[in-house]
Amino acid sequence: MTREQAVADRFKVRGYNDFDPRERVRNETERIVCILNPRARAGSAGARVGELKRALDRCFAQGEVVVTEGPGHASELAAEALAGGADIVAAVGGDGTCNEVVNGFFDGERPRRRSAIFSVIPWGTGGDLARSINAPKSMGDALWIAAMGMTLPSDVGHLRYTRADGGDGERIFINVAGFGANGEVVSRANKSSKRFGGTASFLSATLATLVNYQPGRMTLTWEGPDGPGSWSGELLSAFVANGQYCGGGMHVGKGGSMHDGWFDLTLLPPMSLGRSVSQSWRLYDGSMTKIPGVIRARASSVEARCEDDSRSILLDVDGEQPGKLPASFKVIPRPLQIRGGWLRSPLLDEDRPTWKPGATRR
């Protein structure tokens, strides 16, 4: 048994709270600010502030919890924490909270402080970024990772898009963006109660969307490791993946990396309702490239527009729905330090699969 396997086995068997206090290691040198979304987990997270503070004190000698007051506030709090000298800023909530906190690390495309560290305490309905960085579900374990985990320089995406009012928008995304039916799914899911969890909420929204969604005709161009690529036609969904998971566990970036300077771009063709339902399991096990007509490519930038100006093709950006096409997506290579639950550095991986731009996997 390798050392990594031994550590992994021990970590699975014994949770953070199962360790004797003398075995726990407290971070004495770094100051952490935890940004809590009290509306996470269908509004239940706000009642656990005291629990979070007690767990935080066991892991860090210097730490505080701040609570958001509305949409966009997490970005402001993150920027304030960085300006105040915080070493680590952690998002306590779901994927939307993570997106807002990460946006606070940047002024436009420019990182505010490259030495600052981002981490995740997954307390929300959607935990797709947590899956991508191997953050544990347990609050105590996640705080232990924030205190003692591996820190890696990671890519982010920069997005320019069209707001609902027709104006220009700009934001950073950390995990997965996309457009088409997935934009409709996110809009529908975010209007639901989410009380049955992320996977059930997004699966229900997906099935409801597929009943009525009419694919639009779109044009995409991109730059990748093998040169420029382009595609035009009717499209069900597109995923621009920096991380690996979205939509409550859909494995849309299988084989990808948040540290290689590339997006994993996946285009899904139009399908009948019956075929969409029968093939939906492939979105979750990472085998969607086996669906006939799927296109997969690696890209450093992607431009997308709908050929019908009367159609509103909605965006999905880290589980939020900020606007619509036209839009452009660009990788910013490794500007963000992420502390995650990796037991082995993914920077050592050399066996990633490759796809030529425009190649169709069957």
Identify the notable features of this structure and list them briefly.
alpha+beta, Rossmann fold, Tumour Suppressor Smad4, 2 domains, 10-stranded mixed beta sheet, 11 helices, 19 strands
CATH class of the largest domain: Mainly Beta
Compute the number of strand runs: 19
Classify the fold: give the CATH topology of the largest domain: Tumour Suppressor Smad4
**Helical proportion, percent range:** 25-40%
Give the terminus-to-terminus CA distance.
Answer: 37 Å
Strand percent estimate: 25-35%
Radius of gyration: 20 Å
The CATH architecture of the largest domain can be named as: Sandwich
Mean pLDDT: 85
Shape: globular
Q: How do the helices and strands follow one another from N- to C-terminus?
A: HEHHEHEHEEEHHEEEHHEEEEEEHHEEEE
* SS class: alpha+beta
The total tally of domains equals 2
Question: Please, how many helices?
Answer: 11
Sheet bearing the most strands, described? 10 strands, mixed
Uncertain ranges: 10-17, 353-362
